[in-house]
Design goal:
Elements lengths: L7 E3 L7 H19 L6 H22 L2 E5 L3 E6 L5 E6 L3 E7 L2 H6 L1 E8 L5 E8 L1 H22 L1
Antiparallel strand pairs: 1-2, 2-3, 3-4, 5-6, 6-7
């Protein structure tokens, strides 16, 4: 399970790009096979494969850095955007429900989506493609309980 840090930032898991990374691996293996056996390949095919690999890696990493989820002792925040940022925060003490959703591939690769609901009903944070979502939910519940305990001890 994740250790509880004062503040922590999460991003989308690279595991969601597993099929694309496998395709890159297969293409590189194909090129290696061609090179080892001394076969000739048209330069446009090589350029196409190189372009596919470059665009795939660039797009996947760029997309990962669009979304960030930050949790500290007081709030959970979701920031979205590249240049301008849209930030949505939910106070830890206002969280009333947490849902984890995982498809078959997400379960196999141990990542998933988390929905965090606030007491007002208007605020929902959708955390997409988070590594080990059940561990994250346990950590969030621990923070919620700690916050509730600390607030009650002040009374």
């Amino acid at each position: 399970m994740m250790g509880i840090k004062e503040e922590m930032t999460l991003r989308n898991s690279r595991k969601m790009y597993f099929p694309l990374y496998m395709m890159i691996f297969i293409l590189v293996g194909f090129l290696g096979y061609i090179y080892v056996n001394g076969l000739s390949v048209h330069k446009f095919l090589l350029m196409g494969i190189g372009l596919f690999i470059a665009l795939t890696l660039t797009a996947s990493e760029t997309r990962r850095f669009k979304e960030a989820y930050t949790i500290n002792k007081d709030f959970l925040a979701h920031s979205s955007g590249y240049i301008s940022k849209d930030i949505k925060k939910i106070l830890i003490e206002s969280i009333i429900d947490i849902d984890v959703k995982q498809g078959i591939w997400q379960r196999l690769l141990r990542y998933g989506d988390i929905q965090v609901h606030a007491a007002s009903g208007a605020h929902i944070i959708h955390m997409k493609n988070i590594n080990k979502p059940h561990d994250f939910v346990k950590m969030l519940e621990t923070r919620m309980n700690n916050k509730k305990y600390n607030d009650q001890s002040r009374i």
